Amino acid sequence: MDQADFDRELDIQASDINGDMIDMAKLNAQQAGLLHSIQFKQLAVKDFSTTKENGVIVANPPYGKRLNDQAMVRQLYAEMGQAFAPLTTWSKYILTSDMGFEKAYGSKATKRRKLYNGTIRTDLFQYWGKPNWHHDRA
């Protein structure tokens, strides 16, 4: 049985297509004392790729008031699905208020958890990967 390696350094990366969101995330990380523990980059989700074997993606894509154009939202979700599909050993956790997310993303979630952001119902769509611990440990 594998045991957790709590002394292992984590590779934490954060990205957004919007530079203002990156600046806000950096400020929040600085206030939390984590600025130097996270690599930030301005990047469209469709351009995301990795060679790491295992990992976790946590995404909070724009929804509700942050993005009003439904066609753009669905396109973003489709791009996420295409970018993340090859990452079968990775787990993905995506928070959105769009109940049509799974259809646009192109895959049914392993588990779906209902949450609230104030009065806005949001769901946490969980896609559990099948880690391959005998290779690179991301």
TrEMBL record:
<dbReference type="GO" id="GO:0070043">
    <property type="term" value="F:rRNA (guanine-N7-)-methyltransferase activity"/>
</dbReference>
<keyword id="KW-0489">Methyltransferase</keyword>
<dbReference type="GO" id="GO:0008990">
    <property type="term" value="F:rRNA (guanine-N2-)-methyltransferase activity"/>
</dbReference>
<dbReference type="GO" id="GO:0003676">
    <property type="term" value="F:nucleic acid binding"/>
</dbReference>
<dbReference type="InterPro" id="IPR002052">
    <property type="entry name" value="DNA_methylase_N6_adenine_CS"/>
</dbReference>
<feature type="domain" description="Ribosomal RNA large subunit methyltransferase K/L-like methyltransferase">
    <location>
        <begin position="4"/>
        <end position="123"/>
    </location>
</feature>
<dbReference type="InterPro" id="IPR029063">
    <property type="entry name" value="SAM-dependent_MTases_sf"/>
</dbReference>
<keyword id="KW-0808">Transferase</keyword>
<protein>
    <submittedName>
        <fullName>Methyltransferase</fullName>
    </submittedName>
</protein>
<dbReference type="InterPro" id="IPR000241">
    <property type="entry name" value="RlmKL-like_Mtase"/>
</dbReference>
<dbReference type="Pfam" id="PF01170">
    <property type="entry name" value="UPF0020"/>
</dbReference>
